[in-house]
Amino acid sequence: METVSAATTWTRDTAQAEKRDLWSAMKRGFRCRCPRCGEGKMFRAFLKTADNCSKCGLDFTPHRADDLPAYLVIVIVGHIVVPAALWIETNFSPAVWLQLAIYLPATFLLSLVLLQPIKGAVVGVQWALRMHGFDENAPGDIPPV
User: Fold this and answer.
1) Does residue 144 register a pLDDT over 80?
2) Is residue 11 situated within a structural domain?
3) Which residues are within 8 A (CB) of 39 and not within 5 positions of it... i.e. 6 or more apart?
4) 98: three-class secondary structure by DSSP
5) pLDDT digit string (tens) for 11-20?
6) For the whole model, what pTM was predicted?
7) Is residue 14 one of the residues assigned to a domain?
8) How far is residue 137 from each of residues 84, 87, 101, measured CA to CA in Å?
9) Domain count, the chain
10) Residues whose CB is less than 8 angstroms from the CB of residue 75 and which lie 6 or more positions away in sequence, other chains included
11) What 8-state DSSP symbol labels residue 47?
12) What share of the chain is helix, strand, coil (3-state, %, to 5)?
């Protein structure tokens, strides 16, 4: 005869997990620091995350930031540059070459400056919400994405 064992049901209430504050994880990630401790560096290159935190050992490999940081940077920079361009065009009407000399470098530099902090904030959000493998108490029968 086979014995059937009772299946254990996993819920977030049954798992004893550390508290993860979303806003502090986002701020730490925006500063390109580890979302858990806030001290270790998150990136080993411009957009390459480190394998783990040098201070607390948090594993960064399960993150799935993908294209979200780029989309967010496009939205943010667009909301800064486009109103500025419209305001300057309606009030001063500078020459087209002058506008291009201002808006193109401004857009490029703002995008470069914001891309790494935004990606860090996205990884911080994923860690705080226990997304994509950042949940150490997840059941083992759920396959990774």
Assistant:
1) no
2) no
3) 33, 53, 55, 56
4) helix
5) 555 555 678 8
6) 0.81
7) no
8) 48, 52, 53
9) 1
10) none
11) S
12) 45, 5, 50
Angle in degrees, CA 4, 6, 12, rounded to 5 = 150
Angle CA(126)–CA(135)–CA(40) in degrees, nearest 5? 60
Residue 54 lies in a domain: yes
Rounded Cα distance between 112 and 32, Å, is 14
Which amino acid makes up residue 48? K
Query: What is the distance between the alpha carbons of residues 124 and 30, in angstroms, rounded to a whole number?
Result: 8
DSSP 7: P
Task: For the beta carbon of residue 117, count every other beta carbon within 10 angstroms.
Answer: 15
Distance CA 38, CA 128 (A): 13
The amino acid that residue 7 corresponds to is A
Q: CA 117 to CA 70: how far, in whole Å?
A: 11
pLDDT at 8 > cutoff 60 = no
Contact status, residue 62 vs residue 69, Cβ threshold 8 Å: no
Q: Give the helix ranges, DSSP H, for the chain.
A: 22-30, 68-91, 96-128
Q: What is the pLDDT of residues 110-125, one digit of tens each?
A: 999 999 999 999 999 9
Overall residue count recorded for the chain in this entry = 145
Q: Which domain, by its residues, includes 44?
A: 20-129
